[in-house]
Amino acid sequence: MSTTEQAEPAPRRRRGRPGYDQPAILRAAIDLFNRRGYDATSMGDLAKELGLTKPAIYHHVTSKEQLLGLALDDALDELTAVVTEASRERAGVGAYERLREVVRRSVEVLVAHQPSVTLLLRVRGNSEVELAALERRRWLDDRLAALVAEAAAEGALRDNVPPALVSRLLFGMVNSLVEWYRPDGAYDPVMVADAITTVAFDGLAKHEA
């Protein structure tokens, strides 16, 4: 090779736009779904929001429905783990203690995953993905109702309120956080978890006549 010849430079490895991996695209999609509504949001809208082309998004996900499924899994997976763990009998830990634990930890999960939980609470079963998410929510309600019934059978809770109703009220109180809780607001997650468990369980506790 002559001194005037130069070797052809190796091609640079193509990389995606910085910051736009699948988790970043999912966060943007959840925000857009919450602001505009899932049905009213197109992949073109998401591409415009991110400043990307649609093919660039399809490099990371296959469809808008897949994004919805990932978002709903983000809302449900950790909560499912919390309820599953609380449903297991443990030596020296009664149902009442496990019920208090699941309510407290549910607050922590909601705060950590507030955007995706907000989206979850808005689904109405308009697709297979939404129907599957609603089925998982019903499973959570059933498990929590069973735990309430166990705590009542132990004599720790009043037994004149149906367990399924108590389950709905407890999760309803936790879920209401999506409407008003702000991470930069006056109340930190620990304070909120303490308040909800105190309000809920002081009212549910069985008092001797």
TrEMBL record:
<feature type="DNA-binding region" description="H-T-H motif">
    <location>
        <begin position="42"/>
        <end position="61"/>
    </location>
</feature>
<dbReference type="InterPro" id="IPR001647">
    <property type="entry name" value="HTH_TetR"/>
</dbReference>
<dbReference type="InterPro" id="IPR050109">
    <property type="entry name" value="HTH-type_TetR-like_transc_reg"/>
</dbReference>
<dbReference type="Pfam" id="PF17932">
    <property type="entry name" value="TetR_C_24"/>
</dbReference>
<dbReference type="Pfam" id="PF00440">
    <property type="entry name" value="TetR_N"/>
</dbReference>
<dbReference type="InterPro" id="IPR041490">
    <property type="entry name" value="KstR2_TetR_C"/>
</dbReference>
<dbReference type="InterPro" id="IPR023772">
    <property type="entry name" value="DNA-bd_HTH_TetR-type_CS"/>
</dbReference>
<feature type="domain" description="HTH tetR-type">
    <location>
        <begin position="19"/>
        <end position="79"/>
    </location>
</feature>
<dbReference type="InterPro" id="IPR036271">
    <property type="entry name" value="Tet_transcr_reg_TetR-rel_C_sf"/>
</dbReference>
<keyword id="KW-0805">Transcription regulation</keyword>
<keyword id="KW-0804">Transcription</keyword>
<keyword id="KW-0238">DNA-binding</keyword>
<dbReference type="InterPro" id="IPR009057">
    <property type="entry name" value="Homeodomain-like_sf"/>
</dbReference>
<protein>
    <submittedName>
        <fullName>TetR/AcrR family transcriptional regulator</fullName>
    </submittedName>
</protein>
